[in-house]
Amino acid sequence: MAPRRKSVQTSSRSLNDVCYKENNYLCCLNDYQTRVRRRESLRYARNKEHDLEQKIEVEIKMREGSARLLAAAKHRAQSLEAAKALLTSNERMSVYIAELQSRRRETVKQSCASGSTGKLSISDLRIPLMWRDSDHFKNRGDHRRFAVFCLARLGTEVHDTSLLCPIDRTHTDLSFPDVLIFNNVPAEFELILEIYSHVLQEDLSIASTPRRIKKTIHSSISKTVGKKLAASLRDEFGSAKSGPQFDLVAYAKLTLGDTNDNTHTHDLVINSIQNKCHSLPLFGHFCCRLAVQPECINKEMCIGNVKIDGQDYWARLQGFHIKIWESKKHAEEGQNSEHTIPINKKTIIQPSKSSSKEFLINNSGNNIEKMLPIKFESKEEAQKWSRLLLMHANDHSRWKHAAEVIQRVSSIESTRNSFISNKRQGSLYDETPLIESIPSDYTSARPHVQTIFDLTPSTSLSSCSSTNSLTSLRSRSLSISGIFKQGAISLKPHLASANKKADIL
């Protein structure tokens, strides 16, 4: 019996050796895969650092060119555009440098939000101004004139709008024609909109400009006193910063909850400026159209052959749906899909107990009781589809209402250089109805400011404040008095019904 015990011992030792070798091989393989992932992450981080360094070099060149243009500018428009470009380059450089330093501190930077990104656009940007009645309608009082533009920040992207100049008391609001586009935007984004303004000094009194005083000194006082005063003014003027200086007068923070397919009103945070004369008369709110669209809406996330109820199909995962055709040819021809399976935050992917090549799609949360089994050609294909479906359902939860209702995102980055359309954008004041919406036939005929005064959007209301136009304004207002009378007649039944309800209560 002894030889048998020896054979059993040797076989157990050989089995242990095999297990040890397998475990050692698996550990080595795991270490190798970890090193490969780390090396690829380092390479990706270095490539991103290289891209940032290239962007910083570009902004340095832009900054140098803007500074030279600002020093050589002789006209107001040139100096304002150069100062705006210089400020934008400085802001971009600060963002790039801060991002580069944070990436170098953390060598392997993990993505803060896993899942798909999206495309964001901000357009129809309008900012109402708050002038006094005497300033706007009578064209007197506040004589200040401004140059205004906006910066939009999101991550490392900084976009600027066109410069509006001059803005004075005849303008009821600021209307920017630009469409700003942001790519690769996560669902947890935070867009910061900043408003910069500059007071045009040449419109103020002569006492506010040292250079004008310097030019007129020789004609008003003696040469001895004039030289001393001119020297002090020269020192004061030379110590000041060269070129126009823009002040950050207000800002706003926008997130995914502020996105919509239509234009909406948002709040502004107004900054306090030391010199109150330089503050832009903002109302505290602004309007814009902020739209976002996840990339998985128009991008094919996964395609391939599937088997449902024993029949072969061609499937495509896109836009939070699985569309199924009889063949790949039908899908390429653009034919309507045979079946459509919704994939959203309520969808559950369950592995099949019978086969590793199959899983179940549970849409019971979507009032679909049937669990749909889908079979694939291989185990790897089933795992790939299962992983992408789970990610797709997670994206639906992250993007919230933007995943349920598709928002239109413009593909035009800016319209400031577009000369195709000569149509001028009207102001908020001209487009605001005089009477709130009432559920009656009067709603379709309610007058606007343009209807009453027979004005085009490009015509300022301040031009109607002169005495020569008073009679014409009265005649126009009297001509539409019939509309008001008809509206009052149509309002009587509504008022009567409202009074009856009040009496009952």
UniProtKB/TrEMBL annotation:
GO cellular component: actomyosin contractile ring
BP terms from Gene Ontology: actomyosin contractile ring assembly; mitotic cytokinesis; septin ring organization
Domain spans labelled Anillin homology: 117-257
Record-given protein name: Anillin homology domain-containing protein
Originating organism: Cardiocondyla obscurior
